[in-house]
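Need tokens for this chain, all 172 residues.
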Amino acid sequence: MAEGFESLVREALQLHPTDPDFPEGCPTRLPKDVAAAKEKYQEAMGIYFDSLGVSQVDYETLKSCYTGYVLCLVMDKNWDEVIKVTSRAEVDCPVGKPWFLAGMRVAKKGAQLEQASVAIIDGRTSEASELLKQARENLDAQAMYTERWYGDLYDDAQERLSSLEAELKTAT
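Here are the structure tokens for all 172 residues:
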């Protein structure tokens, strides 16, 4: 079953180019064919949600699937589903890299802001107020994850620098 999930994700990723700045393979650009990619992601997520546990799936594959699926949902402006899927992603990928978790919060915040604007137009002020409050909380969480991401990048750079300095000392 895990192989079916992963092969569907690979098929979806063929429709969905990755950003070279993110070598882990998570799609960050818009898919060439949103409808086809979304269909593949829906099929893969259906397999995942119905029969797999997180321990049976490679986290990078799972994060790629979530990222691609959320991007497709954003393109469709399916805000209810964006909120649902991003919430599920944070539960399923608690060890997700900070940039992945920040991305999920960005998508969720955007969906909540879109829903709040509709609620304001429709005169549902209490609903709009609650959505704006949730969007602010997601902005705070996004900032925390982004700060952690930059901290991780800094730590990696420091580690590489130390390694290069050690190599230089042994070479001289």
